[in-house]
Amino acid sequence: MAPKRTTPFQILAALLPGTSLRSTQAAYLQVLLVLWLVVPGRLNFTNLARYGGPSERTHRAWFQKPMPWVELNTSLILQMQDQQCLGRESIIGIDAVFIDKNGRCTPGVAQFWSGCQQRSLSGLEGSCVTWVDLDTQQPFPLSISQTPTDLPGEQTRTDVYAQDTLNTLAQLPPAMREQVLAVVGDAYYAKRKFVDPVADEGQLPFVGKLRRDASLKHLYFGPRTGRRGRPKKYDGQASLSDFSRWDVLPWMDACTAYTTVVYAVGLKRVVRVVALLWPGKSGMTLELLFSTDPTMDAGTIVKLYRARFAMEFPFRDGKQFAGLGDCQSRQAQALHFHWNMALHSVSVARASQLMSQRQRAGPLVFSMEDEKRRAYNEFFADRILSLLPGDLTCEKFAPQIADLLLLGVKAA
Length: 412
Prior knowledge:
Elements: H1 8-15, H2 23-38, H3 45-50, H4 56-63, H5 69-82, E1 90-100, E2 110-114, E3 119-133, E4 139-146, H6 157-170, H7 174-177, E5 180-184, H8 192-201, E6 206-210, E7 216-219, E8 234-237, E9 247-249, E10 256-264, E11 269-280, E12 283-291, H9 298-307, H10 312-321, H11 332-357, H12 368-386, H13 398-405
Protein backbone atom coordinates (compact mmCIF):
# COMPACT_ATOMS: atom_id res chain seq x y z
CA MET A 1 0.00 0.00 0.00
CA ALA A 2 1.39 3.41 -0.98
CA PRO A 3 2.27 5.76 1.91
CA LYS A 4 -0.24 8.47 2.68
CA ARG A 5 0.53 11.68 0.85
CA THR A 6 1.17 14.92 2.72
CA THR A 7 -0.91 17.61 1.00
CA PRO A 8 0.13 21.26 0.59
CA PHE A 9 -2.66 22.23 3.00
CA GLN A 10 -1.27 19.94 5.71
CA ILE A 11 2.22 21.35 5.19
CA LEU A 12 0.97 24.93 5.55
CA ALA A 13 -1.09 24.06 8.63
CA ALA A 14 1.99 22.49 10.24
CA LEU A 15 4.30 25.47 9.72
CA LEU A 16 1.87 28.28 10.67
CA PRO A 17 1.96 27.72 14.48
CA GLY A 18 5.71 28.41 14.48
CA THR A 19 5.35 31.80 12.78
CA SER A 20 4.39 35.24 14.05
CA LEU A 21 1.08 35.30 12.14
CA ARG A 22 -2.06 36.17 14.05
CA SER A 23 -4.76 33.51 14.19
CA THR A 24 -6.95 35.45 11.74
CA GLN A 25 -4.05 35.77 9.27
CA ALA A 26 -3.27 32.06 9.55
CA ALA A 27 -6.92 31.10 9.04
CA TYR A 28 -7.27 33.29 5.95
CA LEU A 29 -4.00 32.03 4.46
CA GLN A 30 -5.17 28.42 4.76
CA VAL A 31 -8.47 29.23 3.04
CA LEU A 32 -6.65 31.20 0.35
CA LEU A 33 -4.19 28.38 -0.42
CA VAL A 34 -7.10 25.97 -0.99
CA LEU A 35 -8.72 28.40 -3.43
CA TRP A 36 -5.38 29.20 -5.07
CA LEU A 37 -4.80 25.55 -5.96
CA VAL A 38 -8.43 24.81 -6.82
CA VAL A 39 -9.43 27.68 -9.13
CA PRO A 40 -8.68 26.51 -12.70
CA GLY A 41 -8.97 29.89 -14.44
CA ARG A 42 -7.52 33.31 -13.76
CA LEU A 43 -6.62 33.85 -10.13
CA ASN A 44 -8.27 37.19 -9.44
CA PHE A 45 -10.69 38.39 -6.75
CA THR A 46 -13.78 37.57 -8.79
CA ASN A 47 -12.81 33.94 -9.46
CA LEU A 48 -11.62 33.37 -5.89
CA ALA A 49 -15.03 34.48 -4.60
CA ARG A 50 -16.88 32.26 -7.10
CA TYR A 51 -15.43 29.09 -5.58
CA GLY A 52 -16.75 29.78 -2.08
CA GLY A 53 -15.29 31.13 1.13
CA PRO A 54 -14.61 34.87 1.54
CA SER A 55 -16.31 37.42 -0.66
CA GLU A 56 -14.53 39.50 -3.28
CA ARG A 57 -14.54 42.47 -0.93
CA THR A 58 -12.94 40.40 1.84
CA HIS A 59 -10.17 39.24 -0.50
CA ARG A 60 -9.47 42.81 -1.54
CA ALA A 61 -9.22 43.88 2.11
CA TRP A 62 -6.83 41.06 3.04
CA PHE A 63 -4.58 41.73 0.05
CA GLN A 64 -4.01 45.25 1.37
CA LYS A 65 -2.53 43.93 4.63
CA PRO A 66 1.15 43.01 5.12
CA MET A 67 2.18 39.37 5.42
CA PRO A 68 5.61 38.09 6.61
CA TRP A 69 6.43 36.19 3.43
CA VAL A 70 10.13 35.71 4.17
CA GLU A 71 9.29 34.17 7.55
CA LEU A 72 6.71 31.87 5.96
CA ASN A 73 9.06 30.68 3.25
CA THR A 74 12.03 30.18 5.56
CA SER A 75 9.83 28.19 7.96
CA LEU A 76 8.81 26.00 5.02
CA ILE A 77 12.46 25.39 4.07
CA LEU A 78 13.44 24.55 7.65
CA GLN A 79 10.51 22.14 7.85
CA MET A 80 11.70 20.40 4.68
CA GLN A 81 15.21 20.16 6.10
CA ASP A 82 13.88 18.57 9.29
CA GLN A 83 12.11 16.02 7.07
CA GLN A 84 15.47 15.40 5.32
CA CYS A 85 13.99 16.47 1.99
CA LEU A 86 16.55 19.26 1.50
CA GLY A 87 20.27 19.59 2.15
CA ARG A 88 22.16 22.05 4.33
CA GLU A 89 24.05 23.99 1.65
CA SER A 90 22.42 26.65 -0.49
CA ILE A 91 22.78 29.83 -2.48
CA ILE A 92 20.69 32.98 -2.58
CA GLY A 93 19.73 33.77 -6.17
CA ILE A 94 18.60 37.19 -7.35
CA ASP A 95 16.69 37.74 -10.59
CA ALA A 96 13.93 39.91 -12.02
CA VAL A 97 10.71 38.65 -13.62
CA PHE A 98 8.69 40.62 -16.14
CA ILE A 99 4.92 40.65 -15.54
CA ASP A 100 2.62 41.82 -18.30
CA LYS A 101 0.20 44.56 -17.25
CA ASN A 102 -1.97 46.78 -19.42
CA GLY A 103 -3.34 50.20 -18.60
CA ARG A 104 -1.83 53.34 -17.15
CA CYS A 105 -3.30 53.48 -13.64
CA THR A 106 -1.28 50.68 -12.06
CA PRO A 107 1.74 52.07 -10.16
CA GLY A 108 5.11 51.00 -11.52
CA VAL A 109 4.14 50.41 -15.16
CA ALA A 110 7.19 51.14 -17.32
CA GLN A 111 9.51 49.60 -19.88
CA PHE A 112 11.19 46.47 -18.49
CA TRP A 113 13.26 43.75 -20.07
CA SER A 114 11.37 40.57 -20.97
CA GLY A 115 13.66 37.55 -21.08
CA CYS A 116 11.09 35.49 -22.98
CA GLN A 117 10.79 37.96 -25.86
CA GLN A 118 14.34 39.34 -25.55
CA ARG A 119 13.21 42.96 -25.68
CA SER A 120 11.84 45.72 -23.46
CA LEU A 121 8.07 45.76 -23.01
CA SER A 122 5.57 47.87 -21.10
CA GLY A 123 4.51 46.19 -17.86
CA LEU A 124 5.63 45.51 -14.32
CA GLU A 125 8.76 43.92 -12.88
CA GLY A 126 9.33 41.97 -9.69
CA SER A 127 12.72 41.49 -8.08
CA CYS A 128 12.79 37.99 -6.59
CA VAL A 129 15.22 36.61 -4.01
CA THR A 130 15.29 32.80 -4.12
CA TRP A 131 16.83 30.13 -1.88
CA VAL A 132 18.24 27.24 -3.95
CA ASP A 133 19.27 23.96 -2.32
CA LEU A 134 22.55 22.69 -3.79
CA ASP A 135 21.93 19.01 -3.05
CA THR A 136 18.55 18.70 -4.77
CA GLN A 137 18.65 21.84 -6.99
CA GLN A 138 15.22 22.80 -5.63
CA PRO A 139 14.31 26.54 -5.62
CA PHE A 140 12.15 28.23 -2.99
CA PRO A 141 11.42 31.95 -3.55
CA LEU A 142 11.79 33.93 -0.32
CA SER A 143 10.28 37.24 -1.42
CA ILE A 144 9.39 39.19 -4.53
CA SER A 145 9.15 42.99 -4.55
CA GLN A 146 7.94 45.35 -7.23
CA THR A 147 10.61 47.38 -8.99
CA PRO A 148 9.70 51.07 -8.54
CA THR A 149 9.89 53.56 -11.39
CA ASP A 150 10.06 56.85 -9.47
CA LEU A 151 13.47 56.78 -7.80
CA PRO A 152 14.75 59.68 -5.71
CA GLY A 153 17.96 61.50 -6.57
CA GLU A 154 20.65 59.42 -8.25
CA GLN A 155 19.27 56.10 -7.05
CA THR A 156 19.04 53.44 -9.75
CA ARG A 157 17.22 50.14 -10.11
CA THR A 158 20.45 48.35 -9.23
CA ASP A 159 20.40 50.09 -5.84
CA VAL A 160 16.84 48.83 -5.33
CA TYR A 161 17.83 45.24 -6.21
CA ALA A 162 20.74 45.40 -3.77
CA GLN A 163 18.54 46.73 -0.97
CA ASP A 164 15.90 44.03 -1.58
CA THR A 165 18.62 41.38 -1.31
CA LEU A 166 20.04 42.84 1.90
CA ASN A 167 16.57 43.15 3.46
CA THR A 168 15.84 39.50 2.71
CA LEU A 169 19.22 38.36 4.04
CA ALA A 170 18.59 40.30 7.26
CA GLN A 171 15.37 38.33 7.84
CA LEU A 172 16.96 34.90 7.46
CA PRO A 173 17.17 32.82 10.66
CA PRO A 174 20.77 32.28 11.84
CA ALA A 175 20.50 28.55 11.05
CA MET A 176 19.75 29.34 7.41
CA ARG A 177 22.20 32.23 7.09
CA GLU A 178 25.07 29.87 7.93
CA GLN A 179 24.04 27.54 5.09
CA VAL A 180 24.30 30.21 2.37
CA LEU A 181 27.55 29.90 0.42
CA ALA A 182 27.07 32.92 -1.85
CA VAL A 183 24.67 35.33 -3.49
CA VAL A 184 24.42 34.50 -7.20
CA GLY A 185 23.18 36.67 -10.06
CA ASP A 186 23.57 36.91 -13.81
CA ALA A 187 25.64 39.41 -15.78
CA TYR A 188 23.23 42.30 -15.10
CA TYR A 189 24.12 42.29 -11.40
CA ALA A 190 27.89 42.40 -11.98
CA LYS A 191 27.98 46.09 -11.07
CA ARG A 192 29.65 47.85 -8.16
CA LYS A 193 26.31 49.23 -6.96
CA PHE A 194 25.13 45.66 -6.39
CA VAL A 195 28.32 43.74 -5.67
CA ASP A 196 29.72 46.12 -3.04
CA PRO A 197 26.65 46.11 -0.72
CA VAL A 198 26.25 42.34 -0.96
CA ALA A 199 29.91 41.52 -0.42
CA ASP A 200 30.60 44.22 2.20
CA GLU A 201 27.34 44.81 4.09
CA GLY A 202 25.87 41.38 3.44
CA GLN A 203 29.23 39.72 4.19
CA LEU A 204 28.65 37.04 1.56
CA PRO A 205 30.62 36.29 -1.62
CA PHE A 206 28.95 37.24 -4.86
CA VAL A 207 29.16 34.83 -7.80
CA GLY A 208 28.20 36.13 -11.21
CA LYS A 209 29.15 36.53 -14.85
CA LEU A 210 31.33 39.19 -16.46
CA ARG A 211 31.15 40.70 -19.92
CA ARG A 212 33.23 38.96 -22.56
CA ASP A 213 35.23 42.17 -22.99
CA ALA A 214 35.74 42.81 -19.27
CA SER A 215 38.90 44.70 -18.33
CA LEU A 216 41.01 42.42 -16.10
CA LYS A 217 44.56 42.91 -14.83
CA HIS A 218 47.02 40.32 -13.60
CA LEU A 219 48.37 40.90 -10.09
CA TYR A 220 52.08 41.56 -9.65
CA PHE A 221 53.92 39.22 -7.27
CA GLY A 222 57.48 39.99 -8.35
CA PRO A 223 60.30 41.59 -6.35
CA ARG A 224 60.10 45.19 -5.17
CA THR A 225 62.44 47.72 -6.78
CA GLY A 226 63.04 49.66 -3.56
CA ARG A 227 62.38 52.95 -5.32
CA ARG A 228 60.16 55.69 -4.00
CA GLY A 229 56.47 55.71 -4.88
CA ARG A 230 53.66 53.24 -4.82
CA PRO A 231 54.74 49.60 -5.27
CA LYS A 232 53.77 47.93 -8.52
CA LYS A 233 50.35 46.26 -8.15
CA TYR A 234 49.46 44.94 -11.60
CA ASP A 235 51.33 42.93 -14.18
CA GLY A 236 49.61 43.81 -17.42
CA GLN A 237 46.19 43.28 -18.96
CA ALA A 238 44.73 39.77 -18.73
CA SER A 239 44.21 38.45 -22.25
CA LEU A 240 40.88 36.75 -23.05
CA SER A 241 42.26 35.09 -26.17
CA ASP A 242 45.63 33.84 -24.89
CA PHE A 243 45.29 31.89 -21.63
CA SER A 244 48.96 30.96 -21.25
CA ARG A 245 49.12 32.84 -17.93
CA TRP A 246 45.96 31.18 -16.61
CA ASP A 247 45.70 27.85 -14.78
CA VAL A 248 44.15 25.04 -16.83
CA LEU A 249 41.39 23.04 -15.12
CA PRO A 250 40.57 19.38 -15.75
CA TRP A 251 37.00 19.36 -17.00
CA MET A 252 34.52 16.58 -17.71
CA ASP A 253 32.35 18.57 -20.11
CA ALA A 254 33.09 19.41 -23.72
CA CYS A 255 34.47 22.82 -22.73
CA THR A 256 37.93 23.97 -21.71
CA ALA A 257 38.29 25.82 -18.41
CA TYR A 258 40.90 28.27 -17.14
CA THR A 259 41.10 30.20 -13.89
CA THR A 260 43.16 32.92 -12.29
CA VAL A 261 42.96 35.68 -9.67
CA VAL A 262 42.83 39.13 -11.24
CA TYR A 263 41.83 42.71 -10.55
CA ALA A 264 38.47 43.54 -12.15
CA VAL A 265 38.61 47.18 -13.21
CA GLY A 266 34.83 47.58 -13.43
CA LEU A 267 34.27 46.15 -9.94
CA LYS A 268 37.35 47.81 -8.38
CA ARG A 269 38.24 44.62 -6.51
CA VAL A 270 40.28 41.43 -6.72
CA VAL A 271 38.22 38.44 -7.92
CA ARG A 272 38.72 34.87 -9.03
CA VAL A 273 37.67 34.41 -12.64
CA VAL A 274 36.81 31.17 -14.44
CA ALA A 275 36.91 31.24 -18.24
CA LEU A 276 34.85 28.56 -19.99
CA LEU A 277 35.43 27.93 -23.70
CA TRP A 278 33.62 25.52 -25.96
CA PRO A 279 33.18 25.27 -29.75
CA GLY A 280 30.17 27.06 -31.20
CA LYS A 281 28.70 27.64 -34.63
CA SER A 282 30.87 30.70 -35.28
CA GLY A 283 34.03 29.75 -33.42
CA MET A 284 34.86 29.43 -29.74
CA THR A 285 32.28 30.67 -27.23
CA LEU A 286 33.61 32.34 -24.08
CA GLU A 287 31.88 32.78 -20.72
CA LEU A 288 33.52 34.50 -17.75
CA LEU A 289 32.30 33.56 -14.29
CA PHE A 290 33.70 35.19 -11.17
CA SER A 291 33.58 35.25 -7.39
CA THR A 292 34.38 38.13 -5.08
CA ASP A 293 36.08 35.57 -2.83
CA PRO A 294 39.50 34.95 -4.48
CA THR A 295 39.99 31.80 -2.38
CA MET A 296 36.86 30.11 -3.72
CA ASP A 297 37.54 26.99 -5.77
CA ALA A 298 36.92 27.35 -9.51
CA GLY A 299 34.74 24.24 -9.59
CA THR A 300 32.62 25.68 -6.78
CA ILE A 301 32.11 28.90 -8.75
CA VAL A 302 30.79 26.97 -11.75
CA LYS A 303 28.61 24.78 -9.52
CA LEU A 304 27.04 27.77 -7.74
CA TYR A 305 26.38 29.67 -10.94
CA ARG A 306 24.77 26.64 -12.56
CA ALA A 307 22.46 26.26 -9.56
CA ARG A 308 21.16 29.78 -10.18
CA PHE A 309 19.20 28.62 -13.24
CA ALA A 310 16.81 26.63 -11.00
CA MET A 311 15.16 29.87 -9.86
CA GLU A 312 13.63 30.31 -13.32
CA PHE A 313 11.26 27.37 -12.75
CA PRO A 314 9.09 29.04 -10.05
CA PHE A 315 8.62 31.97 -12.46
CA ARG A 316 7.44 29.59 -15.18
CA ASP A 317 5.10 27.66 -12.87
CA GLY A 318 3.88 30.88 -11.27
CA LYS A 319 2.90 32.39 -14.63
CA GLN A 320 1.40 29.24 -16.13
CA PHE A 321 -0.46 27.74 -13.16
CA ALA A 322 -0.35 30.06 -10.12
CA GLY A 323 -1.67 33.30 -11.57
CA LEU A 324 1.48 35.36 -11.14
CA GLY A 325 0.25 37.84 -13.72
CA ASP A 326 -3.48 37.72 -12.88
CA CYS A 327 -3.75 40.32 -10.11
CA GLN A 328 -6.98 42.29 -10.48
CA SER A 329 -5.92 45.16 -8.23
CA ARG A 330 -4.09 48.36 -9.10
CA GLN A 331 -2.79 48.87 -5.56
CA ALA A 332 0.93 48.34 -4.89
CA GLN A 333 0.35 46.43 -1.64
CA ALA A 334 -2.17 44.11 -3.30
CA LEU A 335 0.27 43.41 -6.14
CA HIS A 336 2.95 42.57 -3.59
CA PHE A 337 0.60 40.19 -1.74
CA HIS A 338 -0.60 38.53 -4.96
CA TRP A 339 2.89 37.92 -6.37
CA ASN A 340 4.21 36.49 -3.13
CA MET A 341 1.13 34.29 -2.70
CA ALA A 342 1.54 32.93 -6.23
CA LEU A 343 5.16 31.93 -5.62
CA HIS A 344 4.39 30.65 -2.11
CA SER A 345 1.73 28.32 -3.49
CA VAL A 346 4.30 26.90 -5.93
CA SER A 347 6.75 26.37 -3.05
CA VAL A 348 4.20 24.56 -0.85
CA ALA A 349 3.19 22.35 -3.79
CA ARG A 350 6.87 21.62 -4.46
CA ALA A 351 7.37 20.71 -0.79
CA SER A 352 4.40 18.32 -0.92
CA GLN A 353 5.80 16.47 -3.91
CA LEU A 354 9.29 16.47 -2.37
CA MET A 355 7.95 14.68 0.70
CA SER A 356 6.01 12.21 -1.46
CA GLN A 357 9.00 11.34 -3.62
CA ARG A 358 11.81 11.38 -1.05
CA GLN A 359 11.96 7.57 -1.00
CA ARG A 360 12.41 7.39 -4.76
CA ALA A 361 15.78 7.35 -6.47
CA GLY A 362 16.61 10.15 -8.88
CA PRO A 363 15.64 13.81 -9.09
CA LEU A 364 12.26 15.24 -8.13
CA VAL A 365 9.58 15.13 -10.82
CA PHE A 366 7.58 18.25 -10.01
CA SER A 367 4.40 19.30 -11.79
CA MET A 368 2.40 22.31 -10.63
CA GLU A 369 -0.29 21.37 -13.16
CA ASP A 370 -0.72 17.96 -11.48
CA GLU A 371 -0.93 19.60 -8.05
CA LYS A 372 -3.75 21.88 -9.19
CA ARG A 373 -5.57 19.01 -10.89
CA ARG A 374 -5.35 16.85 -7.77
CA ALA A 375 -6.56 19.71 -5.55
CA TYR A 376 -9.50 20.44 -7.86
CA ASN A 377 -10.53 16.76 -7.97
CA GLU A 378 -10.55 16.58 -4.18
CA PHE A 379 -12.43 19.87 -3.88
CA PHE A 380 -15.08 18.76 -6.38
CA ALA A 381 -15.50 15.32 -4.78
CA ASP A 382 -15.86 16.94 -1.35
CA ARG A 383 -18.50 19.29 -2.71
CA ILE A 384 -20.53 16.38 -4.12
CA LEU A 385 -20.23 14.34 -0.91
CA SER A 386 -21.37 17.33 1.15
CA LEU A 387 -24.70 17.33 -0.72
CA LEU A 388 -25.42 13.69 0.15
CA PRO A 389 -27.08 12.57 3.40
CA GLY A 390 -24.72 11.89 6.29
CA ASP A 391 -21.34 13.29 7.26
CA LEU A 392 -19.40 12.27 4.15
CA THR A 393 -15.89 13.46 3.27
CA CYS A 394 -13.11 12.44 0.90
CA GLU A 395 -11.00 11.36 3.88
CA LYS A 396 -13.58 8.73 4.90
CA PHE A 397 -13.80 7.32 1.37
CA ALA A 398 -10.12 7.68 0.47
CA PRO A 399 -9.59 4.04 -0.68
CA GLN A 400 -12.77 4.02 -2.77
CA ILE A 401 -12.15 7.32 -4.59
CA ALA A 402 -8.34 7.21 -4.81
CA ASP A 403 -8.40 6.72 -8.58
CA LEU A 404 -10.98 9.48 -8.99
CA LEU A 405 -8.74 12.00 -7.19
CA LEU A 406 -5.92 11.21 -9.62
CA LEU A 407 -8.10 11.74 -12.71
CA GLY A 408 -6.09 13.72 -15.26
CA VAL A 409 -2.88 13.69 -13.18
CA LYS A 410 0.05 12.96 -15.51
CA ALA A 411 2.81 12.02 -13.04
CA ALA A 412 0.61 10.01 -10.67
